[in-house]
Amino acid sequence: MTYQPSPWQQALAQGFNDIESLCKHLQITPDSLTLPADYKNFPLRVPRGFVDCMEVGNPHDPLLRQVLPIADELREYPGYSHDPVGDLAAVAAPGVIQKYHGRVLLIMTGACAIHCRYCFRRNFPYSELQLSSQKIQQAIAYISADPTISEVILSGGDPLLLNDAKLGDLLQQLAGIEHLKRLRIHSRLPVVLPARVTPTLLTHLTAIGKQVVLVIHANHPNELSEQVGIACAGLKQHGITLLNQSVLLQGVNDDAETLVKLSEQLFALGILPYYLHLLDKASGVGHFEVVEERALEFVQHLQQTLPGYLVPKLVREQAGAAYKMPVFRW
Ligand SMILES: *Cc1c(COP(=O)(O)O)cnc(C)c1O
Ligand code: SF4
To answer: Looking at ligand 1, which residue's alpha carbon is closest to its atom 13?
Structure first.
């Protein structure tokens, strides 16, 4: 039997991966000077469905800004480094990162469907890494041996880029670990490639027999298309808890009304806002920073405008800390 890519894999393959064709499609002029010399280490990558949510002819579109490499990435900012969150120091077993009590991150793949320019993972060597089956066994053994681990978080990269067979296999193994209460998945795919939410995926997620939490990642209300809504409805119908995390980004969502709208539209799709992250200070992303003082003003506006459950927690990742540090003003 020949291998047949599924429709979501075909959609993934049809995404944009060069600046020129994306700019042509959006009818904007690429400024050749905007291209960072080393951008091939983390090239442009964006699915068509996400591009469809951008405004044609608008070079400042907030979704475009998240994916278009620009010369600002070459600027150096004090305090920005290659591993700002201390992940490299927290590797407990192959693919296992343990920083917080009771929870481990399991990283099966470093690949993503979209390359977000602000992401700290842009500097990691593992962008196309896939855990071998032997390494997966070591990771499972590590989790099985530690009864204090009650939650496994599939992260990456994007864990939903694994094909159904691999993911199903992994979930089955996790299902067998009795002390695991919950499975959590951190994925941007329901937003940037909603076709990934297939009936097979839903079946795999329900079959695990544990509570499943899916934390999606949307930064701007324009990302929440009708297709995203359909994918989320399927997930909800299968009893999966949906949360969202965003990163506060200059030129994307650093605006009180945008953040209010994001929370409202998330909830309309059955998703609760979870975290609003201050930017991780990775080399090449300084131009996205929103200073803490402004971030706190946005949160105050959200608090004055929305019910408490629609106000995300403003947090900062601090290497070595026991949890994500809340940022607040008395
Ligand atoms: C963010 C993160 C988690 C999850 O933290 P929560 O506060 O439970 O969402 C777990 N492990 C690592 C390494 C993380 O970076
Ligand atoms: S890990 Fe998340 S934020 Fe980073 S590039 Fe992948 S999808 Fe984007």
So the answer is: 99
